[in-house]
Amino acid sequence: MDGTGCIFCRIASGQMAADIVAEDDLVVAFRDLSAQAPTHILLIPRQHLRSAAELTEEHGPMLGRLFATAARLALDEGVARDGFRVVTNSGPAAGQSVDHLHFHLLGGRSFSWPPG
Ligand code: 5GP
Ligand code: ZN
User: Fold this and answer.
1) Would the CB of 89 count as within 6 Å of ligand 1?
2) Which atom from ligand 1 is nearest to the alpha carbon of 88?
3) What does the alpha-carbon distance between residue 66 and residue 33 come to, in Å, rounded to a whole number?
């Protein structure tokens, strides 16, 4: 699938509005429409990948950028010191609802473990 009709591709290309907090040539970060924590940001590659199941070693530079962006945003949001969570849901059993790879950056409250 090339991403035609994908809502996160539409956000990355500017065709659809989102509260974007960071973007560069490889990744885009924007606030989740339905925040589950005081800080809830989604980080996506500009490239359409369906989930983490499609990742290979060649995605290393994009993933490095994405996690460095997550770390910087955690600092900016003031959640780095107390702690935060970065998580990706891959596939139906994990609850993935948008089929464009994305990482949730969650912070500003405590999280239980293991996840439900
Ligand atoms: P998943 O359930 O696939 O792990 O996460 C998808 C996330 O995307 C959900 O947390 C949902 O609230 C968010 N989401 C779905 N559609 C939109 C949208 O159009 N804009 C934004 N900003 N977030 C969205
Ligand atoms: Zn997409």
Assistant:
1) yes
2) 4
3) 20
Local confidence band at 2 (pLDDT 50, 70, 90 cut-offs)? confident
pLDDT at 1 (0 to 100): 61
* Pocket lining: 32 vs ligand 1, CB cutoff 6 Å: yes
How many angstroms separate the alpha carbon of residue 102 from the centre of ligand 1? 9
Long-range contacts of 76-79 (CB under 8 A, 24+ apart): 76/21, 77/39, 77/41, 77/107, 77/108, 79/38, 79/39, 79/107, 79/108
Domains in the chain: ranges and CATH: 7-107 (3.30.428.10)
Tens-place pLDDT, residues 49-97 = 999 999 999 999 999 999 999 999 999 999 999 999 999 999 999 999 9
Region 3-10: mean pLDDT is 95
Annotated catalytic residue 104: no
CA of 33 to the centre of ligand 1 (A): 6
